[in-house]
Amino acid sequence: MIKKSISLTAEGKKELEKELEELIANRPAIAEKIATARAFGDLSENEEYSSARNEQKMAESRILEIQEILKNAKVIRGGKRDSVALGATAVLDMGGREVEYTLVGPTEANPLEGKISNESPIGKAIFGRKAGETLEFNGKKIKITSIK
Asked: Is residue 1 part of a domain?
Protein backbone atom coordinates (compact mmCIF):
# COMPACT_ATOMS: atom_id res chain seq x y z
CA MET A 1 0.00 0.00 0.00
CA ILE A 2 1.37 3.40 -1.01
CA LYS A 3 1.17 6.00 1.72
CA LYS A 4 0.28 9.54 0.72
CA SER A 5 2.73 12.12 2.01
CA ILE A 6 1.16 14.73 4.24
CA SER A 7 2.19 18.35 3.80
CA LEU A 8 2.93 20.23 7.02
CA THR A 9 4.53 23.55 7.79
CA ALA A 10 7.46 23.45 10.21
CA GLU A 11 5.19 25.15 12.77
CA GLY A 12 2.44 22.57 12.22
CA LYS A 13 4.92 19.73 12.71
CA LYS A 14 6.15 21.26 15.98
CA GLU A 15 2.56 21.65 17.22
CA LEU A 16 1.81 17.99 16.46
CA GLU A 17 5.02 16.87 18.18
CA LYS A 18 4.08 18.93 21.25
CA GLU A 19 0.55 17.46 21.30
CA LEU A 20 2.01 13.95 21.01
CA GLU A 21 4.37 14.58 23.94
CA GLU A 22 1.48 15.86 26.06
CA LEU A 23 -0.74 12.87 25.22
CA ILE A 24 2.03 10.40 26.03
CA ALA A 25 2.84 12.23 29.27
CA ASN A 26 -0.87 12.06 30.23
CA ARG A 27 -1.01 8.25 29.92
CA PRO A 28 -0.16 7.58 33.60
CA ALA A 29 -2.87 9.99 34.80
CA ILE A 30 -5.48 8.23 32.67
CA ALA A 31 -4.31 4.83 33.91
CA GLU A 32 -4.66 6.12 37.48
CA LYS A 33 -8.24 7.28 36.77
CA ILE A 34 -9.06 3.81 35.45
CA ALA A 35 -7.52 2.11 38.51
CA THR A 36 -9.35 4.42 40.92
CA ALA A 37 -12.67 3.93 39.13
CA ARG A 38 -12.16 0.16 39.02
CA ALA A 39 -11.91 0.18 42.81
CA PHE A 40 -15.47 1.52 43.04
CA GLY A 41 -16.83 -1.94 42.24
CA ASP A 42 -19.23 -3.23 39.57
CA LEU A 43 -17.79 -2.02 36.24
CA SER A 44 -21.04 -2.50 34.31
CA GLU A 45 -22.66 0.43 36.15
CA ASN A 46 -19.53 2.43 36.87
CA GLU A 47 -19.73 5.72 34.94
CA GLU A 48 -16.29 6.87 36.17
CA TYR A 49 -14.71 3.70 34.80
CA SER A 50 -16.51 3.99 31.44
CA SER A 51 -15.52 7.65 31.16
CA ALA A 52 -11.86 6.94 32.00
CA ARG A 53 -11.71 4.04 29.50
CA ASN A 54 -13.26 6.27 26.82
CA GLU A 55 -10.70 8.98 27.56
CA GLN A 56 -7.95 6.38 27.22
CA LYS A 57 -9.31 5.11 23.89
CA MET A 58 -9.53 8.66 22.51
CA ALA A 59 -6.00 9.53 23.66
CA GLU A 60 -4.51 6.32 22.23
CA SER A 61 -6.35 6.85 18.96
CA ARG A 62 -5.01 10.39 18.69
CA ILE A 63 -1.47 9.21 19.54
CA LEU A 64 -1.60 6.69 16.70
CA GLU A 65 -3.04 9.30 14.33
CA ILE A 66 -0.31 11.85 15.13
CA GLN A 67 2.42 9.22 14.83
CA GLU A 68 1.11 8.23 11.39
CA ILE A 69 0.92 11.88 10.28
CA LEU A 70 4.48 12.57 11.45
CA LYS A 71 5.77 9.38 9.82
CA ASN A 72 4.36 10.50 6.45
CA ALA A 73 4.95 14.23 6.87
CA LYS A 74 6.70 16.30 4.25
CA VAL A 75 7.68 19.66 5.74
CA ILE A 76 6.97 22.53 3.40
CA ARG A 77 9.35 25.44 3.48
CA GLY A 78 8.11 29.00 3.57
CA GLY A 79 10.13 31.76 2.04
CA LYS A 80 9.48 34.44 -0.55
CA ARG A 81 7.32 33.25 -3.38
CA ASP A 82 6.01 34.87 -6.52
CA SER A 83 2.83 32.78 -6.48
CA VAL A 84 0.53 31.29 -3.84
CA ALA A 85 1.89 27.89 -2.75
CA LEU A 86 1.86 25.70 0.35
CA GLY A 87 3.35 27.60 3.26
CA ALA A 88 2.76 31.00 1.66
CA THR A 89 0.52 33.67 3.15
CA ALA A 90 -1.71 35.44 0.68
CA VAL A 91 -3.14 38.86 1.45
CA LEU A 92 -6.52 39.14 -0.27
CA ASP A 93 -8.78 42.10 -0.92
CA MET A 94 -12.28 40.66 -0.70
CA GLY A 95 -14.43 43.59 -1.72
CA GLY A 96 -12.76 46.17 0.48
CA ARG A 97 -12.10 43.76 3.33
CA GLU A 98 -8.50 42.59 3.62
CA VAL A 99 -7.83 39.06 4.87
CA GLU A 100 -4.69 36.98 5.20
CA TYR A 101 -4.68 33.25 4.59
CA THR A 102 -1.76 30.90 4.98
CA LEU A 103 -2.08 27.94 2.64
CA VAL A 104 -1.41 24.68 4.48
CA GLY A 105 -2.15 21.00 4.07
CA PRO A 106 -5.52 19.69 5.27
CA THR A 107 -4.04 18.27 8.49
CA GLU A 108 -3.24 21.66 9.98
CA ALA A 109 -5.99 23.77 8.42
CA ASN A 110 -7.76 26.04 10.89
CA PRO A 111 -9.75 28.86 9.26
CA LEU A 112 -10.21 30.65 12.59
CA GLU A 113 -6.41 31.08 12.68
CA GLY A 114 -6.23 32.06 9.02
CA LYS A 115 -4.82 28.67 7.95
CA ILE A 116 -6.70 27.27 4.98
CA SER A 117 -6.23 23.95 3.26
CA ASN A 118 -4.91 23.79 -0.26
CA GLU A 119 -7.80 21.36 -0.84
CA SER A 120 -10.49 23.85 0.28
CA PRO A 121 -12.46 25.76 -2.37
CA ILE A 122 -10.73 29.08 -1.65
CA GLY A 123 -7.37 27.33 -1.36
CA LYS A 124 -7.82 25.75 -4.77
CA ALA A 125 -8.93 29.09 -6.22
CA ILE A 126 -5.83 31.03 -5.08
CA PHE A 127 -3.23 28.26 -5.46
CA GLY A 128 -0.64 29.17 -8.09
CA ARG A 129 -1.96 32.73 -8.51
CA LYS A 130 0.37 35.72 -8.46
CA ALA A 131 0.19 38.99 -6.53
CA GLY A 132 -1.96 41.51 -8.38
CA GLU A 133 -4.22 38.88 -9.93
CA THR A 134 -7.97 39.21 -9.60
CA LEU A 135 -10.26 36.20 -9.62
CA GLU A 136 -13.90 35.48 -9.11
CA PHE A 137 -14.90 33.24 -6.23
CA ASN A 138 -18.51 32.51 -5.25
CA GLY A 139 -19.67 35.45 -7.37
CA LYS A 140 -17.27 37.92 -5.72
CA LYS A 141 -14.11 39.49 -7.03
CA ILE A 142 -11.00 38.77 -5.00
CA LYS A 143 -7.66 40.44 -5.58
CA ILE A 144 -4.40 38.94 -4.35
CA THR A 145 -2.65 42.08 -3.10
CA SER A 146 0.55 40.41 -1.88
CA ILE A 147 2.18 37.10 -1.01
CA LYS A 148 4.34 36.68 2.07
From this structure: no
